[in-house]
């Protein structure tokens, strides 16, 4: 085979049957071919870049053309003409130079390309979650850096990402403030009780923000992080119970331990359910909302117990029951909006980017978390003001 034929033969050419230069060029695979991209790492970067966002390309439904990736029209006739012209005008050298220039131009266009948001219909099935959101979806972005860069673009997940990212930062700062207090200001047991709550909130909000950022990476990554997202909710609910039970039953240690044990068992059960593969499917949305709502509502049992024993006024004054009820209301409202996809179910396509049910749910979760923080810090203040338990007899600790 001559150098010329060799240069035009790409990978899978059958060298036992020489082909003409034109046939060889026709056989050449497109540079964005999936298999070729796997073989050549640099092309994976090209594919990554193809998936870059361009928020300015938010399409309305009518004018929408899907999630366009660059395509290179392969016109056999133009190849024929190019080869013939090149051979006539300058031979092999010119042909190779032209091919090289064309390839450089193609690469430049590819790097300059950017991904655009998608219509729901054009998403792969594993990214189709809420069909009431019509436009503004991110296409699959099989690169973590592209996923994290998309935080700064406008799409259906922008609000979901930022609500819990900012919440995560706020609670991290809160943890730092409380944990750096002196032993006199905040003794170690109180630091542990409050710290459990802060860490639960940080894990929940952190997992949620990460999930919403990377779930368009691939089906595997999406499922993995959705499980972590649900685990985070279970951890936050558990973490919310700990300081409330700790201060409510401060002087009744056995009772406190029984309730804490139940909460931890329910928390572990919720995490196990969250790890179930099918749990993240969109048809299980009401089940997800229901299971976490029931877990949260299980707090009614120790709350009622406290009211029966201490009376309503004491429950409000010393156990922050009013804040607890407000927190429960906010969580339940958020869960209901999430489960029934309000308001987008009434106006499909109107809340694609802002004020969709999931964003409202996120905001209500943050609000509920701060309400609960306020409630447990009031309980902490009360506990620190009265000091140790008055009488530690067997009757009072049970
Ligand atoms: Zn979420």
TrEMBL record:
UniProt topology in membrane: Multi-pass membrane protein
Tagged with keyword Transmembrane: yes
Keywords of this entry: Membrane, Receptor, Transmembrane, Transmembrane helix
One protein family per Pfam: HlyIII
Transmembrane segments: 161-180, 192-216, 228-250, 256-277, 289-308, 320-340, 360-377
Annotated region described as Disordered, given as residue ranges: 1-21
Family annotation (InterPro entries): AdipoR/HlyIII-related
Subcellular location: Membrane
Superkingdom of the organism of origin: Eukaryota
Family to which the UniProt record says this protein belongs: Belongs to the ADIPOR family.
Protein name (database record): Receptor
Species: Nesidiocoris tenuis
